[in-house]
Amino acid sequence: MKLDRLLRMTMLLLDRKKVTARELAEEFHVSVRTVYRDIDTLSSAGIPVVSYQGANGGISLIEDYRIDKHFLKAGEISSLSLALKSLLTAYEDPNAKTVLEKIRHVANIESKEDYLFIDDSPWGQDVHIKQKRTFLKAAIETSTCVEILYGNGTDTPRMIEPHTLVQKGRSWYVYSYCLQRQAFRLFKLTRIKELQLTGQTFQRKEVNVSELPWDTDWYDHKVVTLKLAYQQEIREKVEEMFGVEAIDEEKQTVTLQLPEDQWLYGFLLSFSDKIEVLEPMHIREIIQRQARNILNVYKT
């Protein structure tokens, strides 16, 4: 997480008189270019970072600089605390557990954050997904290749360079460079059946996550435009799931885009007879066929 890295970098600069960009890059498992971008971010935030050139050069803070209590306001620390505590529901992160206490100690500010809490974990605590997130986070931080067995129709082994953990909708993914496909792919964590570190490291590629690159590369499936008719009794549920903008109340239809795969068919069937697929026709035929198969299973 960039916020976590910036805070830890600030603490490191407070503890040391001078450190090189290369040392910072190795410490935080990022490129030297990323270190200089982080330094620019810190400078823009008002932290007086100085860069010295030459054989004895490096990066440091202005001598005698200390973060005073006005650096972070109580509300800002409260927001930071909320973000870090909520983050821990997704995966184990010892750094997230300690970084807030360090900032509070330096800033000498107390805050309360009990007014809101974001719990990302599903009901019943899916321990396996949390373990996968923790495992992949460690691989991302150390730029280590991971070998996975991925179930996508058929189970196939993949060698990936994990770059970013992504929560999209109600699911978690890892945005990775796939060495087999020689391209970035979005791998759904629930479909990863096995994963192990290879010991092989990689040079992290430049990815601008703020541009949401996975929206244009929705793993290995094409995105289809669906037109669905819904029963009036589930209108509120449809609004909650798809948004009022996607709904034509007069015709009682909803139009949306989703990736076509087995999950989509199961998702549509989960509405039972309360939703009918109008378009595209091939999806309608698949749902009809699967509904007949289900009926055959339950015939007595």
UniProtKB/TrEMBL annotation:
This is HTH-type transcriptional regulator YobV. Residues 2-57 form the HTH deoR-type domain. Pfam families: HTH_11, WCX, WYL. InterPro entries: CBASS_pafABC_assoc_protein, DeoR_HTH, HTH_11, PafC-like, WCX_dom, WH-like_DNA-bd_sf, WH_DNA-bd_sf, WYL_dom. Keywords: Transcription, Transcription regulation. PROSITE patterns: HTH_DEOR_2, WYL. PANTHER family: PTHR34580, WYL DOMAIN-CONTAINING PROTEIN. The gene is yobV.
